[in-house]
Structure formats: C-alpha cells, structure tokens
Give the backbone structure.
Amino acid sequence: MTLGPIEIEVIRNALTAAAAEMDVTIWRTSRSTIVRELLDYSTAVFDADGANLAQSARIPSHLNSMTHALRTLLAEHVPPTAWNEGDVVIFNDPYCGGQHLPDILAFRAVFHEGTRIGFVGALCHHIDVGGLAAGSYAAKATEIFQEGLRIPPVKLLDCGVRNDAVWAMIRQNVRKPDLLLGDLSSQLASLDVGAAAVLRVARRFGADAMIEAGTRILAMSEAGMRAALARMPDGIYEFEDFLDDDGIAIGQRIRLHVRLTIAGDTAHVDLSGCSPQAAGPINATLASTNAAVMFALMCCADPSLHMSAGCYRPITVHAPEGLVVNARHPAPVAHRIAVGHRLLNAMMGALHQAVPHLVPAAYYGNSYVTTFQTVAESDAREVLVEIEIGGSGAHPAKDGVNAYASGMHNNSNIPVEMIEAQLPLTVLRYGLRDGSGGPGRFRGGLGLVREWRIDSPRCFFTANMDRFDHAPYGLAGGGPAAKGALVLRRDGAETPIPPKTDNLPLVHGDVVRLETSGGGGFGPPADRAPEAAARDARLRY
C-alpha cells in the first residue's frame, strides 16, 4: 500500500490517540495518590526499533528518556528476537537505561500477523520501592544499594502468562505492596489498551505500512527540529547554574555548566564542565540528562513540531562518565531530577543568548519532595509522597505563572481532602507565597506555602529538595526569585529543617511548613508598569 501525506497523518494521529488512551487507562485504574492524583506517569508508542513515535501529554523527564531506556533494553538485555506476543518486560535500574528506582518502566512488543511492528510503554513513579526512607527518596544515601529494590530487565508476563515469582519478590520488598502492585497492574492494562489501539491501525494499513509510517514520522520530526535550529544564529553559548549541595557535603555546591554550539541545523551540547558525580543521591544517568537537553531545545522549536525521537537526531551531547550528569555505578540517583531541573535552567540560560525573545527566566527548578510515614498505635503505617512546585519564570512579554508545574514537571497536586481522608495528617495552609517571584518588568510567578500537621502518635519525615541557597535566576535585568524554606513548628517554637533530611521523627501536633521558590523576573524592575504593580498588591494575603 502506498502511503500519501493524508495516510501518514491518519496513522500519526491514531498513534498519538493510542498513547492518550493509555494515559487515561492509568489515571482511571491506578491506586496510589502519587499516580492517580499527582499524575506522575507517562505513556508512549514506539517503532519496531524502540524510537518514540507518539506520546501522551505527561512528564517531559519521562517521555524524553523512554527511547533511551527501550533502546538500551533491546541492545543490552532483551534483544528484539527474544520478544514474543504477550511478553511484558519491566525494570527500574538506572544503570540498565532507567532513571531512579521509584520509576518502573513496562514495555510490550506489538505484533501483526507475526511481524513486530512496534512497542508500547508505560512508566509510573511508584509510591515506594523500599530503601532507607519511605517513598524511596532517601536524602543521605551514598550508594544505589541503599535506595531500594533494583529490578533488572525481567519478563513480568511471558507469552501472556504471569510470572508469579517476580510479583512475589516485589511484594516482599516494598512498604505499600498493595498500592505498588495495583499501580503495576494499571501499567499492564495500559499496555493492553495501547497494543489494541496500534493493532486497529495495523489491520487497516498492514505491517509494512506501519513500519514505513514510523520511518516517515521520525523523518518529519527531524526535519522540523533541523528547521528550528537553522533559525537560530550560529554560535557558542554558555551558561551555568548550581545545586546547593548533595546532602552529604553540606554547602558544597554542584555545578551544571552548559556549552551549547549551534551550527546550521545542528546543536551540540558539551557538559564536560559539570561537577564530578557526588557522594549523595543527586546524580543523574544519561537517560535523565538527555531528557533535559532535548526538552530545552524542543521548547524553542515551532509549536507545530511533532514530538518524537526524530527530534533528537540533530542534537549531540557530550557528557563524560563520572560526572554528575552521567554517573557511574553504584552512585545513588534517587533525586536525579534535581540535576534534570537545574540542567534545564542552564540550557535555557544558554538558549536565551541565541533566541532571547523565546526564553523565560528560570522557573523554580526543583522537585520539593516531602514524604510522611505515619505510624499508628497498632503499628499500621501509611505513606504520603508529595512533590510540590513553585512559580514559573517571567517571559519576555508577560509575568510568570503562579504555582505552576513547569519545566521537567507536568504534575498535578494531591487534593487536601484526599490526603486527610487517607492519612492522619491535616493540611493547615495551602496558598501562594507573597513576594516569592523575582522582580522585573515582568514578575516571576509566585511559589507556594503548605503546612502539614501531624495527627498520628508517630511520624517520620523525609525531605529531598534544593533551591535553598541558589535562587532561580532572572534574565535581562530581572531579579532572582525567593529561595525555599522548610520549618518545623513544635510547642510554639520554629526551627529550620535541613532540605535534605531522612526520617526526622515527628510527634502528634507537630507542624511542617514548606515555602517554595517563585520564578525569576524578566527585564529591569524600574520598567514595570503601574497596573502590573497593582496586580501584585492584590495577590498579597
């Protein structure tokens, strides 16, 4: 069958719809608040070689890493010839192509009339996979063995038959097995839905046409990305940003340095100036690092660009092993997203020099990860993982957005009612943080204030966050945003909580307050219009 442009668009949109159906399946069937409410998961459709052809509107740090994960899986662990109809392979090991241990990837091959025509994949951030701290976000881990259960590539379903030994092994090693295994079942249901949707298209067009369409979809994305890069002025653009520390060497900042070269319709990103890998768990593997780099450049492309692995082809990344952006086993990586956020901030700072009209100031650039493990008199335990956000950076033409999931995030918030119905916690305060946006002609978005009261006899609190020393930067004369703050209130007295803390014992009546960063400002503050200043005043609480 000869495929014209109309047929290609029909197939492309059908695959995108398949990824969206997978997305909705997880949302409707998942168990834990981190998946069902926070929406920390992603789904995608891949060609027969493991390249992303279509994706749901979910998490950039996931979606731009899933091709890397699947291709590593196929090249080094489960070759294409080892896949049968009905097989599902899962893994979470960052050193097998993953990112960090809470993110379990699941892939299924799709066959039509005996020919492998592609794969479908789903990634979920699970509520707990064991390790030093509940939620598997230990802030003081010094090797990956302390971070939780590592799952190498293994067939969870073999020709459609459930591998009960793997399910039992997972159940035995995590704090909330029913929630995790429920969410894992949602991933499997999502793969079923995605495979069925892809097969509906294949039955209409045939296997050869599906493979041809995949090749042409990737070529279209590549052409769009090359055209976007060609519109940027050639040159070398450098920028750097810093993480506060790794949680072990307190106050020893971590450098994220970008040297971006635009040459014609290509981009090369040299990350050799980044700090060496750290002792603490803020390291990233290449899957995470490449996701941030690709996302930054794709953000500066035409809005009509189709997001697929074809976009990656004109972009090369140099990141020597042993750096914080390409950690060597067995470095801990639980909070690898800290590098992802900050690397994206640095990439945007470099891109501002090339296309200043497109790039906003720094967003909050951090995952404010808070974990509560409550313990009842009966010793029953509940786990809550929250990932708070802040303000987006001001744009060259408008203010930043308040309390908005930006950059590598695309999370929602967990409703207060849901938390209070399921755990002995009370949310006393949840609102905008006055004055947290960076000043400028256009003001950065405001961060958040959130307070939790402990209503349980015992509780253990873990925090893994940053932006307490190095504020989100402003651009073009705009000022930086406010830094973060984390405080414990007990018996009327307030004491700071270190932003990287494991298993802090809390008691009934304690209150934890988190204040997140806003976004940086854009342009000189003296140029801010009076009506904008009036809007600022109305935001005060």
